[in-house]
Amino acid sequence: xxxxxxxxxxxxxxxxxxxxxxxxxxxxxxxxxxxxxxxxxxxxxxxxxxxxxxxxxxxxxxxxxxxxxxxxxxxxxxxxxxxxxxxxxxxxxxxxxxxxxxxxxxxxxxxxxxxxxxxxxxxxxxxxxxxxxxxxxxxxxxxxxxxxxxxxxxxxxxxxxxxxxxxxxxxxxxxxxxxxxxxxxxxxxxxxxxxxxxxxxxxxxxxxxxxxxxxxxxxxxxxxxxxxxxxxxxxxxxxxxxxxxxxxxxxxxxxxxxxxxxxxxxxxxxxxxxxxxx
Amino acid sequence: xxxxxxxxxxxxxxxxxxxxxxxxxxxxxxxxxxxxxxxxxxxxxxxxxxxxxxxxxxxxxxxxxxxxxxxxxxxxxxxxxxxxxxxxxxxxxxxxxxxxxxxxxxxxxxxxxxxxxxxxxxxxxxxxxxxxxxxxxxxxxxxxxxxxxxxxxxxxxxxxxxxxxxxxxxxxxxxxxxxxxxxxxxxxxxxxxxxxxxxxxxxxxxxxxxxxxxxxxxxxxxxxxxxxxxxxxxxxxxxxxxxxxxxxxxxxx
Lengths: 278, 253
Known about the structure:
The structure holds two protein chains of two kinds. By secondary structure, chain A is an alpha/beta fold. Chain A contains ten helices and twelve strands. In chain A, the strands form two sheets. In chain A, strands 1, 2, 3, 4, 8, 9, 10, 11 and 12 form a nine-stranded mixed sheet that branches. Chain A has a three-stranded antiparallel sheet with strand order 5-7-6, with helices on one face. In chain B, the strands form four sheets. Chain B has a five-stranded mixed sheet with strand order 3-8-10-11-12, sandwiched between helices. In chain B, strand 6 (103-104) and strand 7 (113-114) form a beta hairpin.
């Protein structure tokens, strides 16, 4: 068994091949692996198919702006209270990325089909929306257990990579997800899971009943790198708050292609990779 | 501090929405919704004063969260009928209560304006019995004859499983109710300081207009006291900017 611990986020980012289907988690609560995302941009990854579980913010926007993305499959990309996602919106309008519009429970249901190893999941709702109209991978089928009851069948989502940030991991590679139980679904569904963490937990997370229920077992974890403040500029509950100034800088600079280039040069490409904490 | 009995637009809208939520046992509030969130908290306070416990869950808030199975939980609860009321908005809303959260213009996906995306609307609009639409800009560009992208349809064919749907539309000008059988909005009341003519001129879709349209009732002094003393510090947790702007209040310690 290969040691999943990698020396830094750049080594972790090297595990993501060009063209990978990568699932990322919504930004709230500090689970977006932003340090690893900046490392992906430094490594100039190309052609990613980003699945947002179920939404995303700066992480997807900056990947799109940096030219790393071919496809975004999402229920929403937004900068939240900071405004609309500038690079995502520009790329959709220009047609430089393919956007696959979804709805939150459909992303979850697709990933749940993936984790169960079944080909599809049915989901209520959706019928009559333009989401269904423009998705050639959805099917409206008849409920086999009732008369005249159409329901949407969604194909399983099986990402190549799940990438997220957590507050702690242990030396065995177990990862604490806390209340963010969607991370379990993402990791179960993906072929490979890459994680960054704030700090090491001293002990075995699975040996503690209270923590084990909110822990992803190392059998799903293929790569880990320490990344203190690895969600910045997003905050991590109990560790640090949103870096409001950094968001403001991004929102100002990312308004234009040139501004975004300057932002990347200053805050991403020039940034010294974080040294592993342990 | 002497509380003024002058009310603000926000307080009027909160009170109006609160009245729509009567009888709901569990009210869920999505992201970017400080006014609906405040209305849900006011509803909970009023219900508690008559001995009824109403659950309010505000996504992104630190109030007790009744969901411990991650984001999936909200949708599972809705699928089982465990959520009675929810709020949706739209960059565009049309006369059949279709909502658009994706973008403006022809030629999807390359529309001239792109918004964030549909979020959970394409599911929750079907499943939650009482969906209150809320939109602060009431204008011909937001209230349109037909939306450019249907994130979630207002009505569905009879054979489509749909326990939920649109109940009302609250804007900065007025309150509409939605009749699902007639697939039309009807004007219920106009906010003080505005007129039926103004509503008609600002609305791009046709709607039912009763002979007499009352003014939306202003919040009572008692309601204003509850909002400013009880609701304000609670909503300041998920929405600090809003609470500071409207009430000059910070989150309770």
